[in-house]
């Protein structure tokens, strides 16, 4: 990454700007995205409608009838110059979650395939994945779907060549050292190695998303026979506690 180029402010149509902090994922780049997003939410400009944090960029959507797009771009550049966003503290409380997960079998039909690609045994894949503390780097693609990083280097495997038409919510999908946790059924070319019954998207809730960018997630391996005893409501009732 050419550090001299970033951060960069780009026009994104008539009603949005895109602030790019890097051209790939790193902890410091994602930290900059989340820190700047928290700052904007705390001190917004007039006309701001929405902030959309991504893995390495932040989109700001605004009302072009309320504020001139050029003024927004200039405002962002001035704000960016106020501190080193790559090492800035994120001004929000992140939750730390532990999600009971069934690996392999019907819940993770591609576990053996992933083990072969990674040069590991199936139990080693489970141990490595469940032992990783992963960061929610963004929500996207479908409502509540979380992208988590970052797995060890042996999980730098490509997406599958075929598309699975639909996998259920809570499926544990991996590729390119990332984990994706869908909040609703989705088609995917990522490998399915397990499933958790924890719901991360509930449309009827005032805040329908369980996870937020910056949260920490660890998946805890359990047996299929124990999956039915998981208290799903406990997770939604303990949002904001910092630990679930």
What does this structure look like?
The chain is α+β, with helices and mostly antiparallel strands and 244 residues long. Helix content is 21%, strand content 27%. It is built from five helices and 13 strands. The strands form three sheets. Strands 5-12-9-10-7-6-13 form a seven-stranded mixed β-barrel. A four-stranded antiparallel beta sheet has the order 1-2-4-3, covered by helices on one side. Strands 8-11 form a two-stranded antiparallel ribbon. It starts with 7 loop residues before the first strand and ends in a 7-residue tail after the last helix. The model has no long low-confidence stretch (mean pLDDT 93).
**Strand/helix succession:** EEHEEHEHHEEEEEEEEH
Query: Looking at the structure, what is the overall shape?
Result: globular
Number of strands: 13
Rg computed from alpha carbons, rounded to a whole number of angstroms: 19 Å
Which structural category do the helix and sheet elements fall into?
A: alpha+beta
Low-pLDDT windows of residues:
none
Helix content: 10-25%
């Amino acid at each position: 990454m050419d550090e001299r180029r970033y951060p960069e402010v780009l026009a994104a149509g008539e009603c949005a700007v895109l602030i790019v902090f890097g051209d790939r994922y790193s902890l410091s780049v994602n930290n900059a995205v989340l820190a700047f997003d928290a700052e904007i939410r705390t001190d917004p400009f007039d006309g701001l409608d929405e902030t959309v944090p991504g893995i390495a960029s932040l989109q700001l959507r605004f009302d072009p009838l309320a504020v001139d797009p050029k003024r927004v771009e200039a405002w962002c550049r001035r704000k960016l110059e106020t501190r080193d966003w790559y090492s800035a503290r994120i001004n929000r409380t992140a939750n730390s979650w532990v999600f009971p997960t069934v690996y392999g079998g019907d819940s993770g039909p591609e576990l053996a395939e992933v083990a072969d690609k990674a040069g590991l045994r199936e139990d080693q894949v489970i141990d490595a994945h469940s032992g990783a503390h992963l960061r929610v780097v963004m929500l996207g693609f479908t409502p509540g779907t979380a992208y988590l990083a970052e797995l060890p280097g042996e999980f730098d495997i490509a997406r599958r060549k075929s598309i699975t038409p639909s996998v259920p919510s809570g499926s544990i999908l991996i590729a390119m050292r990332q984990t994706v946790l869908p909040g609703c059924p989705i088609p995917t070319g990522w490998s399915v190695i397990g499933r958790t019954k924890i719901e991360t998207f509930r449309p009827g809730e005032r805040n329908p998303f369980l996870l937020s960018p910056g949260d920490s997630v660890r998946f805890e391996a359990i047996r299929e026979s124990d999956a039915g005893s998981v208290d799903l409501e406990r997770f939604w009732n303990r949002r904001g506690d910092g630990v679930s």
